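Worked example 2:
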Amino acid sequence: MFSTAVLALALLREVHGQQDIVKPIHYNVTLDPDFSMGLFSGSVTIDFLVQANTTNITVHADSIQIVTEKVGIVNSSGHNLKIPSIDRDEKNGVYVIQTEDTLTVGNLFNLTIKDYTGNLRHQDKMGFCLNSYIDRNGKERKMAIARFKPQGARRAFPCFDEPHQKAKFCINIIRPSTHQAISNQPLQNTRYLGGGRFLDEFQESLNMSTYSVAFVITDYKSSMSHGRHRIFADLNMANENVNLRLEEGADLLSKLEDNIGVKYPLSKIDSIALPDHEVIRGEVNGWGLLSCKNSSLAYNLSDPELQTNALEMSQSYAEQWFGNHISPVSWNYTWLNEGLVYYYGYLGASLIGWDAMDRYVLDCTQHALALDSSGEVTLNSISNGTGLQNYKAGAIMRMLQHFVTMDVFQKAVRLFLQTNAFEAVSPLDLYNAVQRIIDIENCHDLIGDHSVNTIMASWETQAGYPIVNVTRNYSSSSLTVTQARFSSNLNGSSVVDNLWYIPLSYTAETYSDKQFCTTKTDVWMSQRNMTIDGVPSNGWIVFNKQQTGLYRVNYDSENWRRITGCLREHNISEIDTLNRAQLVDDVFSLAQAGQLSFDVAFNLSTYISREHAFAPIASFLNNVMALYNKLSPENGHEQLRTYLGDMLNGEAISCLSDEENVNDTLSEKLNRVQILNAMCIIGNEKCESYVFKKFQLWNRNPEKHRIPPNVEPATLCGGIRFGSQSEWDSLFAKYKTSTDDRRKKLYLNALGCANSNSTVKGFLQEILKFRDIDSKDKVDAFKSLVQSSLDVTFIFDFVTANFDNVIDTFPDALPEILKTLAKKLSTNQHLEQMERLKNRFPRWTSTAFEEPLQIVKGNVEFNERFGKSIKNWFSGYLASRKSGSCVNEFSVTLKVLLVGWVFVGINKYWI
């Protein structure tokens, strides 16, 4: 057998991604799946170039069995090399093939591995996987799918499975006559093998990474096309939205080509429709073959669904350039591609009419700030499963675009792609392209005295993100700015060791032209603290225009007072829409981190009753609903529901008619959706008055009284929230008879809005049964019930009493179930109860309970630290509310409170 030392050396190279001893040139892969057995067999030949003398070749092959006698290596003269041994390392998923003769540098060889076998069933659904779906007749159908990103190719064929080791591929699929095969390239030839089996041979691919390989073997009989675009779907799939997706796809591809400046190089781009629960963005996202959800092709989709579908399609199309056309030189740099995919995904959706750039701030920037609040993850660290690197990378790409301007960014990306076409890249390649354009355009003022590499390295290599503290000197028309790493850790303080190159932008109330849309850097901050002179002493100042920078901003109490006063009493449009969303997100995040009083946060937030734009209200709901979940009953939980209802019953809802009309903007439609959804979740009377009659009419005759798609989720939730057991039973019956994945999910989410404990108990019992609710829907059903519950203690008590059944029902999802519960558990009693539950089931202690217990402890600590002050604020708010005209009279109270802060002292965070 092969020596331990040589094997260890080979594995060391594998671990460090340094398999550059050989360079793959071409693959020829043949796969033969057996659906009935859940297995497959295959053969692969790999032409490779030796780049350093060696006597061993390490190939990735995970969950694949290779027969030693079926492995051969041939040199360029046709001579077969002797192979003394082949060693397998299951832990690292590699085989090490030893050769008797040295493979010398500069020579070409051919590696052949015949008749290997593998498994089509993988719990994590990565690799070459067997899938099933239920057709419209209720019959189970099977298909096989390649899910290779990031490291799934090694489960389909032995390969050099590193992103920089690109090669050309010829894919060959053996299939039954009942199925068809689709791959990256068009079909070149089909041969009949006998016994009802065919061999499909596809055209050779361009140079690409192993994760870009894609193929599907399906019995779908329906495909529709539009130019280069095809969609493969179940024969009974509604055609209206198939045509819409094809038209949008053609328009999107054309607009992305124009904007990026590099043509899509393939002759076709196919989409395969899969059941919703099987689809995660990018799971089938090869070069020229993508996946989409069945529900994305359905009739009567809501505007939020249509916008989300456009975003998902646009991100998949963007990945054709940033991930396939170029790929990362190392797995540590996947964030580079993902950041560009996010940026061009949102831009692309906007280019075809879906106005997604406001959502970009909410989905990427604010989401990244929330997920990275512990400040422990760098862009180059391996993914922790939260998607944080992708969101953070997307936010950083947007920041880069804004501080170098759109013109420079577009030219740089074009240069980046043209220079590195079909190659592997590192972040430095992008930075060099941006620097090159800045040098050519002679616009060095955009980056001050710094280089692009220096600026971006501070964001790429450091964990977390900065908080910028702004303290104004009102007597000298100057201000002091300091930076530190933001931390949400209530037991610690901001870490000061990190230092970022921060593009500061700001504007002031007294500027005649506030130029919120001009987002070039006003001042580069590269030190711990700095002074900015010549700023107005009157009015407010706002930093981080349009929240283009990935940082939070805190102000002295007087500036917070002035901002709040403007939003409460003046024209709110004096401050840009995205900055209003930023102010709401920052003020609540700072308060929850103990760096600002909750009085400041809630006082500012009362302006929301005057808000009408989607983004600020979405930011408000994201923060307040999270607070609503963790606030304990004794600390104002019910008062928060009253306050939230007051805020949402303001200008935004009053200027929206009860019924949609053709003149509604997308922002107005999205606002109606998010406000009504929140109203129904908290059980506000506005929900009841708006939806309950609609629900009753629909429940009696769904065909005659159709609910507009945009308000259907809120209407169904409100109907259950304010209805009786009979309404719940009726909707549950509709769930059981529906064969539409999208509608089943819609019904499940609404069923979770049950209000009475007896109905909740009945739903929980149904979830734990092995009938009626599909197994794939059980996790979603439980989560919808918890997330919509007005009495989570009742659910927790039921789970505790029936935990054996819970384990049986959710053997693979128990940590997710407990985590969902934990987010709404906030008392010491809850914590003690979960500790007892953990002790009863010790085998689950290290996996299922660890994170949920930390969440509950965090919620308890939060309530102990902030509960009293939050409750006191609500007491003052409700007292002013009872006195008459709440909004007007509370604004007077607000002024007194705010003025009082100035004399109490500077906020304790930055003294």
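Confidence is low (pLDDT under 50) at residues 1-18, 885-911. The chain has 28 helices and 31 strands.
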